[in-house]
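Run log // design_07
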């Protein structure tokens, strides 16, 4: 999806109960896995900042990055003191030009964002270079089993691509599921360190 098509969802995003529940469960799975108190965090594909909001209470600082102007506008309206927003795609050029991305991060989170990038491996490589030594990257997306259509990732796909991007200590789990009409959809979580 393009940044403009995400703009269409911005206004009602925070009132969508499924979106809110997903962000709450992602946050809880993160809190159960990593101590991020005082951390410098990048929220990649932050959207309206539902996860950013939850993280900001314990984080030292957060850079929230999203290509959608309207999603970033909703997040800016929340006036979170320790959050800096960047409305852009992540590129090598942006990293070279933006001082907020050059300082390095203790933690990078990507909640339901990496399934929408044009090149998963290249994006992971860019994110990995933004991590401080021993920094961690955490990804949540829909779990895709063999033969599944649609977006998402298999456990093996995440583990393999994390390794290819230079991450180590890789753990892949299914921390929660979401109700989906006739059944439920599992969410896969990948964690890797630089």
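design_07 sequence
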């Amino acid at each position: 999806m393009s940044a403009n098509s995400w703009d269409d969802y911005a206004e009602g995003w925070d009132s969508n109960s499924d979106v809110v529940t997903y962000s709450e469960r992602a946050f809880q799975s993160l809190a159960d896995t990593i101590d991020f108190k005082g951390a410098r965090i990048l929220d990649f594909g932050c959207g309206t900042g539902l996860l950013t909001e939850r993280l900001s209470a314990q984080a030292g600082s957060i850079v929230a990055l999203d290509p959608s102007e309207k999603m970033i506008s909703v997040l800016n309206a929340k006036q979170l003191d320790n959050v800096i927003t960047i409305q852009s795609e992540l590129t090598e050029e942006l990293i070279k030009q933006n001082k907020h991305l050059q300082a390095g991060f203790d933690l990078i989170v990507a909640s339901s964002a990496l399934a929408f990038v044009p090149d998963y491996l290249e994006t992971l490589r860019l994110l990995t270079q933004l991590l401080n030594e021993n920094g961690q990257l955490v990804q949540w997306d829909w779990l895709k089993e063999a033969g599944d259509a649609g977006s998402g990732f298999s456990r093996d796909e995440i583990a393999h691509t994390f390794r290819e991007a230079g991450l180590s200590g890789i753990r892949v789990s299914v921390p929660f599921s979401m109700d989906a009409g006739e059944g439920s959809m599992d969410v896969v979580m990948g964690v890797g360190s630089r």
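The chain has a mean pLDDT of 91.
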